[in-house]
Automatic annotation (TrEMBL):
Keywords of the record: Cell membrane, Membrane, Transmembrane, Transmembrane helix
VTT domain ranges (all copies): 71-188
InterPro entries named among the record's database cross-references: TMEM64, VTT_dom
Family listed: Belongs to the TVP38/TMEM64 family.
Protein name (database record): TVP38/TMEM64 family membrane protein
Cell membrane among keywords: yes
Keyword Transmembrane helix found: yes
């Protein structure tokens, strides 16, 4: 028998329906952008290049919006490297990544935050808020290190769970540095191949992937331990609050 949460069942059904709608919209965007490729990234790149000295700033804005529409990040970062080279391109990619994280998290928060709290219940939501206050920033950083996870989809989820926007911005900037460098270098090598840069990018990618896998495994074990023994987390919080 499920524990009573004080939330009427119709409210839960409405919250579930809203979340299902959000997930459906994101799934459609993912299909259109990442699978069907209805957005012509090369055409957008040509338009941006035509803006001259404002091209880096224009690319940051356009790439942030395209990323929020679930256009694959590596493709956007490669375009940045192709246009601006490995150095300036990396900073342009990082700016676009932070912008994408803010846009996606804001939309996720507005679209799914209240529904998520309704489904979780007040007690679980408050516990989640405490966890976010304590480690939300590093959760964002850690997610960026894990290979194979869409940063944009993760940002929508972080927003729905209530991660503050400042944590999203700082976490995305710190956590995206390695991959932003790697993918931007790959894009820059299309115009002019550099063996040292390519080797450096490969090493950075491998180190980041290993570190991300290790961090994900450790985080999973800690989450399982906290779920199986929630009193340990609560006791630890109470103890730290008294110090």
């Amino acid at each position: 028998m499920s524990e009573p949460t004080g939330v009427p069942e119709p409210s839960k059904r409405r919250a579930l329906a809203r979340l299902a709608l959000v997930v459906g919209v994101l799934g459609l965007l993912f299909y259109l952008s990442a699978v069907a490729r209805v957005i012509d990234v090369e055409a957008a790149r040509d338009v941006i290049e035509s803006t001259g000295p404002l091209a880096p700033l224009t690319y940051v804005v356009v790439s942030a919006v395209l990323g929020a529409l679930l256009v694959p990040g590596p493709l956007l970062a490669a375009g940045s490297g192709f246009l601006f080279g490995p150095v300036l391109g990396t900073f342009v990619t990082l700016g676009a990544t932070v912008g994408n994280a803010l846009i996606s998290a804001f939309i996720g928060r507005r679209a799914g935050r209240q529904s998520a709290r309704t489904l979780l219940g007040a007690e679980r939501s408050d516990r989640l808020d405490r966890l976010i206050d304590r480690g939300g920033l590093w959760a964002v950083v850690g997610q960026r290190f894990v290979p194979g996870i869409s940063d944009s989809l993760a940002s929508y989820a972080f927003g729905a769970f209530g991660v503050p926007l400042w944590q999203m911005a700082v976490g995305a900037f710190i956590g995206s540095m390695p991959r932003a460098f790697v993918y931007t270098v790959v894009g820059s090598s299309i115009g002019e191949f550099s063996a040292p840069l390519a080797v450096t990018a490969a090493v950075v990618w491998c180190v980041t992937a290993v570190a991300g896998a290790f961090a994900a495994h450790r985080g999973w074990r800690r989450w399982r331990a906290g779920r199986d023994h929630p009193e340990r987390t609560d006791t630890g919080d109470d103890h730290r609050s008294q110090i």
